[in-house]
Q: What sequence folds into this?
């Protein structure tokens, strides 16, 4: 079953980590300042291609529009690339395998939806599009949602810091369940993130009761808090994704408090004081970046900030006519070409595909460790220990 894609503005499931926590954000995230960016557009087009591949492979019926051949779908994707094809192929394979696995374990044919719009009854503006949903008869009724992520920031189905499952996927699972609960009983819920660009696939399983508790104790009370005359603002690490991130007075206040602490007279900061500041510094830097970006955009749109002006940053020299440069150099006996260099792994993957790359070039690829960063203990990455300066070991 297929359905068209529409997005909620105020109560977008993908922004639920913001509005479940901060009621004021629903006034600022009302869609009026919504901007698309190339990464988001690339992601949307990956989903379109992935959905088309799955639908074709499973012979799904689209009741709302004609089913197009894959080549026609590709023609309409203006950001189409080999990378997009690879992501969409991987996603389609992953979904099809998950469906086949469930089919084998199930007594009846599971219900399968792809790119399914879900209405959410707590507000007329609320709704979202589920990438892939499935309900099988396994274990008395198993509901699965799969979400494709195309960004590079890792996304998890469970946050060990808050002890809460991913609210975006939880909301999809809840309204998918509610849409079909009279026909398909559900006892168990599985939420799965498939994020191929960083090899991050993870899942979380819970009984349906836990999802319904989330609705009663988290979701609906949060929606209530947004529907008052002056919704409260609550600052958190999600602020950087809020449409009001650069102009929110509450966020500014919280950051000014941090600055005040740092400015307290002291000869040197103690380790304990540094430990107090560390959790706030990323947010402080991000806040400053958000204000700079906002001020630049507004200036580009004609706003004059007092004591500030727009200038051109340092330019770089560029050869305007390569053919002429080659001719002149060769006439003077000078080699005009740069030394040949082996293409990078991403470029080679684009040229020959992942499988061939692994087969032919894999033996010559080694993994270089990334630079060391200091992160909170709750970060899911493996901790390293420093043995001697420069040498590291994974714990
Ligand atoms: S910036 Fe943060 S505190 Fe301000 S409205 Fe947005 S989410 Fe709420």
A:
């Amino acid at each position: 079953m297929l359905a068209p894609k529409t997005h909620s503005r105020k109560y977008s499931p993908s922004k639920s980590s913001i509005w479940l926590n901060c009621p004021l954000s629903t006034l600022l995230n009302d869609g009026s300042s919504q901007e698309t960016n190339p990464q988001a557009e690339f992601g949307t087009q990956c989903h379109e291609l992935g959905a088309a591949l799955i639908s074709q492979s499973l012979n799904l019926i689209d009741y709302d529009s004609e089913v197009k051949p894959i080549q026609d779908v590709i023609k309409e994707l203006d950001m189409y690339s080999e990378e997009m094809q690879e992501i969409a192929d991987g996603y389609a394979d992953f979904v099809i395998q998950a469906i086949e696995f469930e089919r084998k374990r199930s007594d009846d044919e599971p219900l399968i939806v792809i790119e399914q719009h879900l209405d959410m009854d707590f507000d007329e503006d609320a709704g979202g599009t589920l990438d892939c949903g499935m309900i099988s008869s396994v274990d008395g009724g198993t509901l699965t949602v799969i979400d494709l992520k195309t960004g590079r920031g890792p996304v998890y189905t469970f946050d060990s810091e808050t002890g809460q499952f991913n609210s975006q996927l939880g909301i999809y699972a809840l309204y998918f369940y509610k849409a079909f609960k009279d026909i398909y009983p559900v006892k168990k819920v599985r939420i799965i993130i498939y994020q191929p660009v960083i090899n991050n696939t993870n899942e979380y399983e819970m009984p349906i009761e836990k999802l319904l508790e989330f609705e009663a104790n988290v979701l609906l009370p949060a929606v209530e808090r947004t529907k008052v005359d002056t919704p409260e603002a609550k600052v958190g690490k999600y602020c950087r994704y809020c449409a009001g991130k650069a102009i929110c007075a509450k966020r500014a206040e919280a950051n000014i408090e941090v600055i005040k602490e740092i400015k307290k007279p002291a000869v040197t900061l103690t380790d304990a004081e540094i430990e107090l500041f560390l959790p706030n510094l990323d947010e402080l830097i991000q806040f400053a970046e958000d204000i700079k970006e906002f001020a630049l955009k507004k200036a580009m749109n004609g706003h004059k900030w007092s004591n500030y002006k727009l200038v051109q940053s340092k330019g770089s020299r560029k050869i305007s006519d390569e053919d002429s440069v080659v001719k002149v150099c060769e006439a003077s006996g000078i080699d005009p070409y740069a030394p040949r260099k082996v293409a990078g792994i991403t470029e080679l993957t684009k040229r020959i595909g992942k499988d061939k790359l692994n087969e032919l070039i894999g033996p010559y690829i080694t993994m270089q460790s990334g630079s060391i960063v200091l992160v909170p203990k709750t970060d899911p990455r493996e901790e390293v220990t420093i043995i001697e300066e420069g040498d590291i070991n994974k714990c």
Remarks:
- Residues 104 and 138 are 10 Å apart (CA to CA).
- Residues 18, 22, 24-25, 28, 233-235, 238-239, 242, 244-245, 248, 250-251 surround iron/sulfur cluster (CB under 6 Å).
